[in-house]
Specification:
The chain has about 350 residues and is α/β, with parallel strands linked by helices. It has 14 helices and 13 strands. Strands 3-2-1-4-5-6-7 form a 7-stranded parallel beta sheet, with helices on both faces. The chain has a 6-stranded parallel beta sheet with strand order 10-9-8-11-12-13, with helices on both faces. The radius of gyration is 21 Å and the shape is globular. The protein starts with a strand and ends in a 5-residue tail after the last helix.
Length: about 350
């Protein structure tokens, strides 16, 4: 299979794209790929390091605060349409895939205008602006959450789940002792993203001290941007702190309760690994989509949600205590997560791509 794939800006778009690539390679080792990304975002470093052919375009999102910058945005967008059209024609793919981010707009649009088959994947419950625009230029759409099915065209949308979930299942579990953790005590994992979350990290500097004397351990992964600030304080011996950990699912497999943001890829891992969680959605994302993502789990009693504005002194420790010390509640949350699980997400996507290429799908 010859595939053009595009996703950009954040790991939440890039890693699902890489998971799709990995599954296609597994099923068809002779497949060839061209990844089209932005010239100045994460993908320009991550993708070439994986040995995947990469081409970039200069493109920006529209600026609501400085309208004059949008003149440059529009100019770059028209150039991006011309550039992606040539890239796609030169590569001549069997299918073109968009996995999120504004970089996908010229890629999917150009592909459709050129007559190529197009597939769009939506990671969040609430489709973003780029994907909303691209719906009519997509032959098939994959949704990560059941709630998305109500917002996308029924005649060409399938529930695929998030392909990152399949990668998470393949990760080997850590030895807790390698991180200085007890092998017998329950573990609470607190993660606020790779860069950290300023206000939450400041809150945690006080809150972590409330775990003194608890019969469980806490591992707080601060994010690189918050680590130095957090380490200015002293904490109880049952609290461990790391700035970052590559391959988080390895720790999640040994986690009894997780405190996390509500990014789509993270929640897909929470669901696939069956990890009970307390979700603190970021309020600083487009259309408050993390809150909407979290609702899919909360409505099923598969997770608890605390909004950032409600993080008062002692609230998080109290909430963790109530869940971690209640085995019945933990098991209920695990069972409810199981009802949200989409097994073999990347394989489902591959099979539908194959059907699209072979003319068996719409």
């Amino acid at each position: 299979m010859r595939v053009v794939i595009s996703a950009g800006g954040t790991g939440g778009h890039i890693y699902p794209a890489l998971a799709i690539i990995n599954k296609i390679k597994e099923m068809e080792p002779d497949s060839e790929f061209l990844y089209i990304g932005t010239h100045n975002r994460m993908e320009k470093d991550i993708v070439p390091e994986k040995g995947i052919p990469f081409k970039s375009i200069e493109i920006y999102g529209f600026n609501k605060k400085n309208l004059f910058k949008n003149f440059k945005t529009i100019k770059c967008l028209f150039k991006a349409f011309r550039d992606t059209k040539k890239m796609i024609k030169d590569f001549d793919p069997d299918v073109v895939i968009g996995v999120g981010g504004y970089v996908t707009v010229p890629v999917i649009y150009s592909a459709k205008k050129l007559g190529y088959k197009t597939f769009l994947h939506e990671q969040n419950s609430l489709p973003g602006k780029s994907n909303k625009f691209l719906i009519k230029y997509s032959d098939l759409i994959g949704a990560s959450f059941p709630s998305s099915l109500e917002l996308l065209p029924k005649d060409k949308t399938i529930l695929t789940g998030n392909p990152c979930s399949e990668d998470a299942l393949k990760k080997k579990a850590i030895n807790k002792s390698d991180l200085g953790l007890s092998v017998t005590k329950k573990l609470v994992l607190i993660v606020m993203g790779s860069l950290g979350a300023g206000r939450v990290s400041e809150y945690m500097k006080k809150e972590l001290k409330g775990f003194e004397g608890k019969d469980y351990e806490v591992l707080f992964i601060t994010g690189k941007g918050s680590y130095d600030s957090v380490m200015e304080e002293k904490y109880p011996s049952n609290v461990k702190i790391l700035p970052f950990y590559e391959g988080l699912p390895s720790i999640m497999k040994k986690t009894d309760l997780m405190v996390t943001r509500a990014g789509a890829s993270t929640l897909s891992e929470v669901i696939s690994l069956g990890v009970p969680s307390i979700i603190i959605p970021s309020p600083f994302v487009a259309n408050n989509h993390q809150y909407i993502n979290a609702l899919d789990l909360v409505k099923k009693d598969a997770a608890m949600m605390i909004e950032e504005k409600d993080l008062n002194d002692g609230v998080l420790v109290e909430s963790i205590d109530k869940i971690i010390n209640d085995d019945k509640k933990l098991n209920e949350m695990k069972n409810n997560l199981d009802s949200l699980k989409v097994d073999d997400s990347a394989l489902i996507i591959y099979k539908n791509l194959k059907g699209l290429v072979d003319g068996k799908n719409k």
